[in-house]
Specification:
6-stranded parallel beta sheet
Length: about 575
C-alpha cells in the first residue's frame, strides 16, 4: 500500500512538472508568472467526473484564477494562497534566520493534526526548532507542548527520537498519532522480540517519523539494538519530562543523566527538551547536563493571573480548623477543592480531624485500597461517578494526576519542598481560567515546616545510591530549595513577582519581529483572556487586613458574590 502511494505521488509530480514547463510557468488565464511551489494545476474535466491526470486535461493557474474555477472551494483556496504569501513575506523580512522554508507547510500540517491555528506561544518554539536550534521549554501540563515537537518532526527529514519516562504516555501519544495517519511507534520492554524486530526494521527503512523510547533503551545489552539506534541519525532528540535530567532533582533518573553521551553517539542532533516546571538554576543544570548551553529557553504560563496567592501564617495544630472554615464557605458549596499534604501520616490525621468537625474529605494517595478503588475516587471527584466528591486531600505525587478544570481552591498544608513543586500544586486551580485561589500555610520564623521538610530530605538522600560527596551535594541543593520557598513566604513583597522571578518569567512580553507578527497573524492565536480579580496577600494587604483572610478568600472564589 505504502509503495503504491509513493509511486502515485511520483507520477503526479512528473506530470505536474511537465504541465508547468508546457505553460511556461505562467497562469494560462491571466498570464502572471509563477514559481513551481505556488502554481496550481487545474483539471479541465474534474476527477469526480472522470477527468484524468493527463496533460491534455491539465492547465497551470494562479491562486486567484484557480479559486474562480472552484467557487465552492474559494475559501479554502484563498486561505492556502494567503498562507503561502504570508510565509514568503515573513521569510523576506526575517533578519534573525528563524523562518525556514518548512514554514510554508504549516497550514497543511496543522490541518493534519485537526487544528486550525497554533496556540498562543507555540509558534516561536516551533520556528526555533525548525531553524536547527536546541530549545528548552518550561510550560505547564496541558499547554500544548506535544505539538511543539511533533509538528517539527513531521517537517524535517528523518526520524525524531522521543525520550519519555512513562510507557503509558508513549502508548497514548503513538495511538493518537497513528489515528491521524502519522507514522509513529514505540519500543519498550513490553514488546515481544518479533514485534521489536518489526519496528526496528521500519526504523531502518526510514518509515517512521517519531520513535518513542525510554532512556534505558540506549543502554540495553543488545549491541544490535544500540547500533540500530545509533545509525538512525535522528532529526531531533526530544526529551520529555526534562527535569529528570537534573542530577539533584527529586525525579532524577540515572539514564537521563547520560543523555549527553547518547546525543553525541546519535550525531549531535538538535535537542528539544520539555518540562512542566524548572526554575532558573534547574534550567541551567539541565542545559549543562545535556551539553546544549546555547539552547533557546522558553518559559510559558508561569503566571496564572486568575489565581490569587495567599500566604497564611498558621501553626500545624490550627490548620485543620482553618481548612474546615474554608470548606464551609457558602461560595465553595459544590466547588472543587484540593488539599495537598506532605505525607500519608499528615493526610490521615487531617482526614480524621475534618471528620470530627463534620466534614468528609477523602484522602487520595498510593496506599489507598486497590487500583480500582483509587480510580473510583478520581471518577467521583471528576463528577463521573456517584456520590460526587467536591473536596479531596492528596499527596503531591497523586494530586498531580488530577486534571480537573473547575478547582476553585488549592490548599497547601505546608510549604512545598521547592518552588517547582509549589507551582505545579497551585497550578491545579482555575484551569478553566475563572477566579480561583491558592492558600499556602506556613508558621513563620519558628521554621518547623522547613525543619520537617529538611528531615524528610535527609531520609531520602540517605537512601540514595550515591557516595558521601554526592549525598552532601544533593542534600545541600534540596535544603537550599526549601529555604528559597520559605524566604518567598516570609517576604514582605509581591508573592507572584517572587514566583515569576524564580522561573525567569519576565513581566514585559517579548516584542515580536515583523516576520513573526505576520506568521502569528496567519497561523497563531491571541493569548486567551483570563479573568483576574486579585494578586496576592501583599498587593491586597489592605483588603485582607480590613475584612480578614477568610472573607477575602470568599470574595475571590465567589467571583465577587461575597461583598467586601
Amino acid at each position: 500500500m505504502e509503495k503504491a502511494l509513493n509511486v502515485a505521488s511520483n507520477q503526479w509530480q512528473i506530470v505536474r512538472n511537465q504541465v508547468l514547463e508546457r505553460d511556461g510557468y505562467r497562469c494560462v488565464s491571466c498570464g502572471v508568472a509563477l514559481r513551481s511551489a505556488d502554481a496550481d494545476i487545474h483539471h479541465l474535466l474534474p476527477r469526480s467526473m472522470g477527468g484524468a491526470d493527463e496533460m491534455s486535461n491539465l492547465v497551470c493557474l494562479c491562486d486567484g484564477c484557480h479559486a474562480r474555477h472552484h467557487p465552492t472551494l474559494a475559501g479554502g483556496l484563498a486561505r492556502r494562497a494567503m498562507e503561502r504569501w504570508a510565509v514568503r513575506l515573513a521569510r523576506w523580512l526575517d533578519r534573525e534566520g528563524v523562518v525556514s522554508e518548512a514554514a510554508g507547510s504549516f497550514g497543511p500540517v496543522l490541518r493534519l493534526f485537526g487544528l486550525e491555528r497554533f496556540r498562543h506561544g507555540q509558534l516561536p518554539i516551533i520556528l526555533a526548532a525548525l531553524s536547527g536550534k536546541s530549545v528548552l521549554v518550561v510550560s505547564p501540563t496541558g499547554s500544548g507542548k506535544t505539538l511543539c515537537f511533533q509538528l517539527p518532526a513531521l517537517l524535517r527529514r528523518g526520524v525524531a527520537i522521543v525520550v519519555s519516562p512513562l510507557k503509558t504516555l508513549m502508548s497514548e501519544q503513538v495511538s493518537d498519532l497513528l489515528g491521524k495517519k502519522i507514522p509513529a511507534t514505540f519500543i519498550n520492554s513490553d514488546l515481544s522480540r518479533e514485534e521489536k524486530e518489526t519496528r526496528f526494521a521500519l526504523l531502518t527503512r526510514n518509515a517512521i517519523k517519531l520513535l518513542y523510547i525510554a532512556p534505558e533503551r540506549f543502554f540495553v545489552r543488545s549491541e544490535d539494538e544500540r547500533s540500530r539506534l545509533k545509525r538512525s541519525q535522528p532529526s531531533f532528540l526530544v526529551i520529555d519530562e526534562a527535569h529528570c535530567v537534573d542530577q539533584w532533582g527529586q525525579d532524577f533518573r540515572r539514564e537521563y543523566g547520560r543523555l549527553r553521551e547518547v546525543r553525541e553517539k546519535l550525531g549531535s542532533p538538535p535537542v528539544l527538551a520539555f518540562t512542566a516546571t524548572a526554575g532558573k538554576e534547574m534550567q541551567d543544570r539541565i542545559l549543562a547536563s545535556l551539553g546544549i548551553p546555547d539552547a533557546k529557553i522558553f518559559v510559558r504560563d508561569v503566571d496564572r493571573p486568575n489565581i490569587a496567592l495567599l500566604r497564611w501564617r498558621c501553626s500545624p495544630e490550627r490548620r485543620a480548623q482553618e481548612i474546615a472554615s474554608m470548606l464551609l464557605l457558602p461560595q465553595l458549596e459544590g466547588q472543587k477543592v484540593m488539599i495537598f499534604v506532605p505525607s500519608a501520616k499528615v493526610g490521615d490525621e487531617l482526614k480524621s480531624n475534618l471528620a470530627a468537625l463534620g466534614l468528609d474529605a477523602p484522602f487520595y494517595h498510593s496506599r489507598l485500597g486497590t487500583p480500582w478503588e483509587r480510580q473510583e475516587l478520581v471518577k467521583r471527584f471528576l463528577g463521573q461517578s456517584r456520590p460526587v466528591v467536591d473536596h479531596i486531600i492528596c499527596t503531591n505525587a497523586f494530586g498531580m494526576g488530577l486534571d480537573v478544570p473547575n478547582v476553585r481552591l488549592v490548599v497547601h498544608w505546608q510549604q512545598s519542598a521547592s518552588a517547582e513543586d509549589l507551582l505545579q500544586e497551585l497550578g491545579r486551580a482555575g484551569r478553566d481560567r475563572k477566579p480561583s485561589a491558592s492558600v499556602i500555610f506556613h508558621d513563620g520564623p519558628g521554621r518547623s515546616d522547613t525543619g520537617r521538610l529538611k528531615f524528610m530530605a535527609e531520609k531520602t538522600v540517605e537512601a540514595a545510591p550515591l557516595d558521601e560527596h554526592q549525598k552532601a551535594t544533593m542534600l545541600e541543593q534540596r535544603s537550599r530549595r526549601i529555604d528559597q520557598v520559605a524566604a518567598m513566604l516570609r517576604s514582605s513583597s509581591c508573592f507572584r513577582a517572587s514566583v515569576r522571578g524564580y522561573f525567569g518569567d519576565g513581566n514585559a512580553p517579548q516584542k515580536l519581529s515583523p516576520a513573526l507578527r505576520i506568521l502569528e497573524w496567519v497561523f497563531g492565536t491571541h493569548a486567551p483572556s483570563t479573568q483576574r480579580m486579585a494578586c496576592c496577600d501583599h498587593c491586597d494587604a489592605e483588603l485582607v487586613k480590613k475584612h480578614g483572610a477568610l472573607t477575602y478568600l470568599a470574595w475571590i472564589v465567589g467571583g465577587k458574590s461575597a461583598q467586601l
